[in-house]
Amino acid sequence: MLNKIFRIATRQSPLALWQAQYVQQRLMAAHPGLQVELLPMVTKGDVILDTPLAKVGGKGLFVKELELAMLEGRADLAVHSMKDVPIDFPQGLGLVTICEREDPRDAFVSNRYNSVDELPQGAVVGTSSLRRQCQLSARRPDLVIRSLRGNVGTRLGKLDAGEYDAIILAAAGLKRLGLEDRIRQAMPAEISLPAVGQGAVGIECRADDEQLITLLQALNHDDTAVCVRAERAMNTRLEGGCQVPIGSFAVLEDDQLWLRGLVGSPDGSQMVVGERRGPRDHAERMGVSLAEELLDGGARDILREVYQGQPPV
Ligand SMILES: NCc1[nH]cc(CCC(=O)O)c1CC(=O)O
């Protein structure tokens, strides 16, 4: 076993590399003598940077090449931000481990203002997330939301160049990159309900790689996995991709799971919210039943508009 080298397929953005190195180090620490290397790759999502994600086919773009490398045996595992992991996995691959969640909140970043509520009338806020746009606009209909893409460093550069009064990023990405001091306001879930899986790192590998799956168990964080499972079950029932304004966020409080969900129109004029509390082993069914409540409460009509004629049933 120890003469095998395990290869982690990874994108080359600083955040992707940080996450891959984090898993590499944790694997080697948990299993002294284990050899783990990185296989840095370029994905389609990295190449097409100036088109809104919604127009180029979504987040699957960032993972396809990594998955092909695993299926062809050039790599053994891939590390993902759970937020970017699609609902379905290709035949032969599976998500086997979810690591402990970093700060799940959205971060308000600005060089002039301390919070969303402090922004002046008509301020320009950068984000390409319909979920963030929806919640910002619902709270502050006067704000002008402008598209913002690129990796974390690029986005901060555009803020610093004066293109925006403020931008919204995931707190987790900023903290991992040592940029925590850029956060002016870690937005509570009441102001910005996070995306499914936000802040959690997941590990994908070949479903029949029993040796690796066993080694990876040491990195699994059960509480995080339960929360993310509930969030993903809700998202799956809604057939949510990343181009839809869906928030889903679960926490464990004294072993009780508290799941909150939100579906809104991109302009923030409509918003359907709901929540479930229950035992941790009901994670999936809570996600599904919350999704159904949201659908019946208006989300079906909102999503029908967004999906343009392909509504969830
Ligand atoms: N959509 C891109 C993406 N995917 C994961 C993170 C941040 C880290 C995380 O949520 O784990 C980000 C950047 C952002 O939203 O600011």
TrEMBL record:
Keywords assigned:
Porphyrin biosynthesis, Transferase
Q: Give every Porphobilinogen deaminase N-terminal domain span.
A: 6-212
Q: Name one GO biological process term.
A: protoporphyrinogen IX biosynthetic process
Q: Where is the Porphobilinogen deaminase C-terminal domain?
A: 226-295
Query: What is the enzyme's class at the highest EC level?
Result: transferase
Cofactors named for this entry: dipyrromethane
Q: Name one GO cellular component term.
A: cytoplasm
Per the record, what are the reactions this protein catalyses? 4 porphobilinogen + H2O = hydroxymethylbilane + 4 NH4(+)
Please name the InterPro entries in this protein's record. HemC, Porphobilin_deaminase_cofac_BS, Porphobilin_deaminase_N, Porphobilinogen_deaminase_C, Porphobilinogen_deaminase_C_sf
Residue ranges annotated as transmembrane are none
S-(dipyrrolylmethanemethyl)cysteine is found on: 242
Q: Known Pfam families for this protein?
A: Porphobil_deam, Porphobil_deamC
How, per the record, is the cofactor bound?
Answer: Binds 1 dipyrromethane group covalently.
Q: Which GO terms describe its molecular function?
A: hydroxymethylbilane synthase activity
Q: Does the keyword Phosphoprotein apply?
A: no
The protein's job, in short, is:
Tetrapolymerization of the monopyrrole PBG into the hydroxymethylbilane pre-uroporphyrinogen in several discrete steps.
How does this protein assemble? Monomer.
Miscellaneous comment in the UniProt entry for this protein: The porphobilinogen subunits are added to the dipyrromethane group.
PANTHER family assigned to the protein according to its UniProt record, in alphabetical order = PORPHOBILINOGEN DEAMINASE
The record's similarity note reads: Belongs to the HMBS family.
Name of the protein in question? Porphobilinogen deaminase
Where does this protein come from, organism-wise? Pantoea sp. BJ2
